[in-house]
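Researcher: For the record, we're logging two predictions in this thread. I'll number them. Prediction 1 follows.
Model: Prediction 1, sequence and structure:
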Amino acid sequence: MAERVAKLKRKTKETDIEMTLNLDGSGKSMINTGIGFFNHMLEGFSKHGFFDLEVNCEGDIAVDCHHTVEDCGIVLGTAIKNAIGDKKGIKRYGSCILPMDEVLVLCAVDLCGRPYLNFEADFTTDRVGYMDTETVKEFFYAISYTAGMNLHLKVLNAGNNHHMIEAMFKAFARALDEACAYDPRITDVLSTKGSL
């Protein structure tokens, strides 16, 4: 099997990002975004998806966290797309219903090449740590668009905002890991069209 690793750099007037993603890792991470809670979420994504992830981002967080979170989503989505490659032999679909204390989150992924985000979460605080809760949707939208995936994220049982966001990142990690996994029964791409 070819190594499924992507290394990217993206620099704008708002952010300067370097990222390395290994889809077939062991869950190791080195994350520095300048936003502690966002670091924690990306570390959880790495650990629970068994992805090796390195992120270094210098962003205009003196303005707010929006550009940093959104642009990291753009780069991560691109890295996922590049690392997956031609999609031959992968399961394509993945899903997870993940509990975190009182919270229950559903995530479903289709690596179909068509971007779509269905996001249902009602946060009751404006921020968790130094991360604005409204940027959570922006992050996952950026991933779905740049990776070309259908991504459904729904908070089935709400509660503590930290728990809700963390459960979303972990559920996404597990669903993506399943969708990226190889199945020996799939010899080409899993589509009647012959391409994804």
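Researcher: Logged. Prediction 2.
Model: Prediction 2, sequence and structure:
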Amino acid sequence: MKHTVVLIPCDSYESEQVCEKLKKGLELLGGLELLINKKEKVLLKLNLVRGASPERAVTTHPAVAAALARIFQEKGYPHVSAGDSSGFGSPVKIMEELGLKPVFKKYGVEMKEFKEAVPVDFPQGVHAKRFMLARDVLDAEALVSVCKMKTHALEHITGAVKNQYGCVQGFHKAKGHTLYSDPVSFARMLGDLNRLVKPRLYIMDGITAMEGNGPTSGDPVPMHLLLLSTDPVALDSVFCHLVHLDPQLVPTNVQGEQMGLGTWRPENIELLTEEGPMELSRALERYGNPDFRVKRSREKARGWMGAVGIFKIFRRKPRIRGELCRKCGVCVESCPVEGKALHFSNGRDKPPVYDYKKCIRCFCCQEMCPHRAIFVK
């Protein structure tokens, strides 16, 4: 059975164009009413990792969020909210900074803070049996995952599957990085999380994507695309193909398929466009970006005892560019390791210093740095 991914070209974030393109994408999936009952409480789970201007491509673009709010109102959905568990800062404040407050008020969308954590047992979990979810997620009956097309230091890319990590409430997100610190373990936890919260629909904002030092410190790059699917693994796999990245290098793709979340295999994916079905190879010719900057190699344990994994001498590490660091301390606050894996050695005259013996390579510091001063090497 083929898993459908809809690819819609979109040249800009002009509000009318984005709205019409999303409407077309939803029609190709069979219509919004087929996926969500109008009486259900709908939650738009945005990517609001931290505050940044829309041009930086850090968050779901406000034009995409606004268009979805408008579509749900026009379709007669009375109970719609939006939110995320941000990595740093208040999600409601981030939405306000993005200019979404008056738009959401106009279309009857309530902004959610994701403050309260609720323990949820998941005995069916393959890797993770319990999650601390935000109450706002549990109160919703239909989750719509609205992610951003970006690179990611730990998982190569962040997209449809990874977006659900924001359903875990704030403090517990950081703790999760210590429990699931390697890429495969983290991907398997994300697979279980997606199986638990079961989003009805996944939408990827790829009109402007982020390449390089993602998911917050990379560079915006135009891709001029919106992707929609009910299969997050297939959607992320199409993203990979479009940037000429082998989908098998992405742990969330491989582990997600093994856990029954979806498929990464191109022969099992049907790509639909406004012109009709399209071969993936043709889509790559028309919409692909072979120069997209993303890590394309598998991390290997090397060194004189690499075979037993004791000394991984050449492991990738977060590093600080001293000339860009403003000594704000966000990286130190973001470190989930007990006792912290980086600290200021002499006040704040110099950038923080890493203790790599403590560092678990979760790259939270790199993800949260607001000044693009941390990179992974």
